[in-house]
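I'll show an entry:

:::
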Amino acid sequence: MGQRLEVNWSVSKARSEFKFDSPENLDQSERGYPMVNFVQPMTYGNLSADGRKYMAMDAPDGIGDTGGYTLPYNQQIIAADQLKLNQVILSQNHNSETDLRGQVDLKYKVSDNFELKFGTKYNNKNKNVDSSLLVWMPKSGLGIPGSPVMYLNQLEREAFPYRGGFMNPLGNPYNSVIINQITNGQIDQMYNPGTQNSLGLMQVSSKDSSSNITSSYRGTENVWAAYMMGIWKVTDQLQVLGGFRNEYNNITFWGKKVVSDKDHKTEDIKDSKTYNVVLPMANLKWNISNDRILRLAYTRSFARPDFNDLNPGTIINDISNTITQGNTKLDPTFSNNFDVMFENYFGKLDLITAGVFYKDITNLIYKDQSVTDIGGRTYTFTTPKNLEGAKLFGFELGISKRFENLPGFLKNLGFEGNYTYISSKMNMPIYENGQQTGTMSTTIPNQAKHIFNTILFYETSKLMFRVAGNYKGNYVSEIRAAAGADHYQYFDKNFTVDLSTSYSISKKVRLFLELNNIFNEPNRYYMGTKDRVENISYSGMRGQMGFTYNF
């Protein structure tokens, strides 16, 4: 639109959907994720004097596991003729999300040295979560006389799918408790009314059960935003950019709550939250010389709570003994950010960077975990909460270098690396007997103090080969305010190595290979101290290979 004004606009709509789709003998609307549970009476060894299972470091008499994992020490052999059918479970989840976005951007050139940009955006998000855990139990297990009892050896079985081994990185410590398992076809038949009748199964949890009613919800989010910014080229060496963005957010959730467990009486609930935010920003770019640039920046940013964290319902999982509850009162997280960055270019494509940054954060969202008892059963209760404030300071260094001065094929070698140091602090409440008695300082969850990445590469006009190393230090992953810092969950330090290569056969055809975590580095979580392992998982090496063709 003329030589000074430029207008761009866009409209988009996206929809995603997820649902479990088994077993096939059920209607599409009834399918889920099938599970069958068996139990066998068992006694265990390596117990402490009080009859409980401990790690040796926590046991009152020092008896317990000492390695990086716990073993069952079962005193009887696990046998198919002793494993009694206990539960038939169907986890139904049907989630969908729709996003509608519209945006208009305008750019106006006021003069050769000054340019204005402004625009508006609208975003509408709708999310539907339909979740249920259906459970059937044998009538014999419910104490009904004359009901049939079913054992694993009376059902179709197949060999356990080792597929190269089970827990190989740990030395296969659980092989002694692995036996032939029930077939998938037999599992599917468990949801056939005729099979359920012959096995004497009774449904004890339906879609109308109290725990399932509160698991489903619907939510909408509407965002109206507008921004304005100006770019002023003060001199050939100095440029200033400033502006602001304003966002108005309206979020509404619909769900149900149980007001009477006896007759499953429910009540519709609706909760809304509205807030408006103003986000200023200012940037300065100073070309000190042809090869050196200094950048200064201030921005105010915010992060909306995750949609799942805002849901008004409560999800109770009797399989994992967990309760997850949303929090519709969550506030967005705000941060005032200050950054200084220096860039030094040398050679043709070589670069060294150094920077420092500081963030003053309010309303930080974290997942709080505690333990609660319901009907004599212990559950891990998780819910998101806001903290009043947190601070973060750090610096980063980076380098990119191609060794073009080396002789022969060595001139195709290159190296990239960056290191980030982060020091963070936030105050957590301390509780005694359910009452807050003070605060204590800890680091921000999921924020490692040390992070570095390195890449060694070899590149020609046809061949590319890269080896990348990625390190992340340990950090707090779960806050357990009621239990105290000794019970916080931490993610252990982690170093993974990836490899990628490609070769261009022609201008149109390229072969490629990508491998991730080639040394099978585990993800390891511990409680309080590194010797108290909570969870360790090995994903193995993953990768893909193929070719690309450019038309």
Q: What stands out?
A: The longest strand covers residues 84-111. The mean pLDDT is 90.
